[in-house]
């Protein structure tokens, strides 16, 4: 039988929940026996996506962030972070390293670059005025299985 | 509360716990309080107690680097773990912020 599992949580877009969100996904991923490095990759990518939802999606207003994760094909972790915020008008521009709409807040503009570096695959869907969904996948222990 | 040791124009500050968007604001405020003394020109950040950092940390560190660069100073880091080191390299921070080993730190 294929190993499949999934989880979903919804929480208010409070900065305090950034830590909560990454720890939840790390705890969910433990069943795949990831290395410490893989856990750090996952936590960092989730932190970036949730921070984007809070800082850029809702821009300090309070909305809901939905975080879901699933395990498919025994070792494939998929993560989705969804907000109903303002959306991204130009996704390729937003994904450029060092591009930020909030330089005054010392945002580095490296969020999507970190997600791309630490995960295997990243897709971003966004509709201005409706919200943004970030999907990421990572194959755990991809180099150690046969 | 950040741990800090002052030696002339050098300031060693230990960062503990996690440095994400939520924590960045208080870390930035405390660092800027310590750097309000314009005689400080060299900031050394000790990452031995730092368990997590994401791109929000990049913004905090580069912001302090700009303050010290304008004074003719710099920022260096010690005790960086491999994950944070990777974030440093991918963001290009390693080009402007030096990583010191313990011997270099002792000589400074």
Keywords:
heterodimer; A: 146 residues; alpha+beta; Heat Shock Protein 90; five-stranded antiparallel beta sheet; 5 strands; 32% helix; globular; B: 108 residues; alpha/beta; Transcription Regulator spoIIAA; five-stranded mixed beta sheet; 42% helix
Can you summarize this structure?
The complex is a heterodimer of chains A (about 150) and B (about 110). Chain A has about 150 residues and is an alpha+beta fold.
Would you kindly provide a written description of the structure presented here, covering whatever features stand out?
The complex is a heterodimer of chains A (146) and B (108). Chain A has 146 residues and is of the alpha+beta class. Chain A has one domain (5-139): Heat Shock Protein 90 (2-Layer Sandwich). Chain A is 32% helix and 28% strand. Chain A is built from four helices and five strands, in the order βααββααββ. Chain A has helices spanning 17-29, 36-57, 91-94, 111-118; strands at residues 5-12, 64-72, 76-83, 121-127, 131-139. Chain A has a five-stranded antiparallel β-sheet, covered by helices on one side. The longest helix of chain A is centred in the N-terminal third of the chain and has 22 residues, at 36-57. The mean pLDDT of chain A is 92. Chain B has 108 residues and is of the alpha/beta class. Chain B has one domain (3-102): Transcription Regulator spoIIAA (2-Layer Sandwich). Chain B has a five-stranded mixed β-sheet with strand order 1-2-3-4-5. Chain B is globular, with a radius of gyration of 13 Å. The two termini of chain B are 24 Å apart. The mean pLDDT of chain B is 93. Chains A and B meet through α1, α2 and α4 of A and α1, α2 and α3 of B.
Q: How are the SSEs placed, and which strands pair?
A:
The complex is a heterodimer of chains A (146) and B (108).
Chain A: E1 5-12, H1 17-29, H2 36-57, E2 64-72, E3 76-83, H3 91-94, H4 111-118, E4 121-127, E5 131-139
Antiparallel strand pairs in A: 1-2, 2-3, 3-5, 4-5
Helix pairs in contact in A: 1-2, 2-4
Chain B: E1 3-7, E2 10-19, H1 21-34, E3 42-53, H2 55-69, E4 74-78, H3 82-91, E5 98-100, H4 102-107
Parallel strand pairs in B: 2-3, 3-4, 4-5
Antiparallel strand pairs in B: 1-2
Helix pairs in contact in B: 1-2
């Amino acid at each position: 039988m294929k190993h499949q599992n999934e989880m979903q949580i919804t929480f208010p877009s409070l900065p305090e929940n950034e830590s909560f969100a990454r720890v939840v996904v790390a705890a969910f991923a433990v069943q795949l026996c990831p290395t410490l490095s893989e856990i750090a990759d996952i936590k960092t990518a989730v932190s970036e996506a949730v921070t984007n939802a809070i800082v850029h999606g809702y821009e300090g207003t309070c909305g809901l962030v939905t975080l879901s994760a699933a395990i498919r094909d025994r070792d494939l972790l998929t993560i989705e972070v969804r907000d109903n915020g303002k959306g991204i008008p130009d996704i390729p521009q937003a994904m450029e390293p060092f591009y930020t709409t909030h330089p005054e807040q010392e945002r580095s503009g490296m969020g999507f670059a970190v997600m791309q570096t630490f995960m295997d695959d990243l897709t971003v869907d966004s509709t201005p005025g409706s919200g943004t969904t970030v999907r990421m996948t990572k194959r755990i222990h991809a180099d150690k299985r046969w | 509360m950040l741990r800090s040791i002052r030696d002339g124009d050098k300031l060693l500050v230990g960062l503990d716990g996690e440095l994400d968007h939520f924590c960045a604001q208080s870390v930035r405020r405390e660092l800027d309080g310590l750097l309000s003394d314009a005689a400080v020109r060299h900031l050394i950040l000790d990452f031995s107690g730092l368990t997590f950092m994401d791109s929000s940390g990049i913004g905090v560190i580069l912001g302090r680097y700009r303050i010290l660069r304008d004074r003719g100073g710099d920022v260096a880091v010690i005790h960086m773990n491999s994950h944070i080191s990777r974030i440093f390299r991918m963001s290009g921070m390693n080009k402007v912020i030096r990583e010191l080993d313990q011997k270099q730190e002792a000589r400074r």
